[in-house]
Amino acid sequence: MHLDHIAIVASDSDCASLRRFFVDVAGLTEGSRPPFGSAGHWLYLDGRAVLHLIQRTAPDIDSGSGHVLIRPPARIDHLALRVEHAGQWQALLARLRQHRMPYLLSGHRAQQEQQLFVTPVPDVTVEFVIQTQCLA
Asked: Per residue in 68-104, pLDDT tens?
């Protein structure tokens, strides 16, 4: 496995400032991004989308109470680890089941990836990613 990307959720103005910093100062380049339901930028390093900036347009709502949650203006949303081989993926699934950790499987056709999201503690999400061709 290796680190795949980091996602930062930020307000419109913070998202723009972060984009300018990472492109103009840090030297990342902006590249293609799938058509998600929110605005944002994917910034690339050596041809890989390593930083996902996600524009937050509305406050988070606690679905249980209906209250608005106070969130910092910008936060790191999740980290992603890329799995290279189907055997590693199957072993990961087995460990998750063994430890009775709930997870969510998702996929994005444009990226041809299988994604697995797990939240080991509240407010910390880890994404595991594998190319779907590796699972065939």
From this structure: 655 566 677 788 888 889 999 999 999 999 999 899 9
Question: Left, alpha or beta for 30 (phi > 0: left; psi -120 to 50: alpha)?
Answer: beta
Are 69 and 61 a contacting pair, CB within 8 Å? yes
Task: Say how far apart CA 136 and CA 130 lie, in whole Å.
Answer: 11
Cα 27 off chain centre by: 21
Q: CA 128, CA 80: separation in Å to the nearest integer?
A: 6
Polymer length in residues for the chain:
136
| Cβ–Cβ < 8 Å for 95, 102 | no
pLDDT, average across residues 14-38 = 88
Is the model's pTM score more than 0.85? no
Determine which of 19-23, 58-62, 118-122 has the lowest per-residue pLDDT on average.
Answer: 58-62
Type of residue found at 52:
H
* Residues whose CB is less than 8 angstroms from the CB of residue 62 and which lie 6 or more positions away in sequence, other chains included: 68, 69
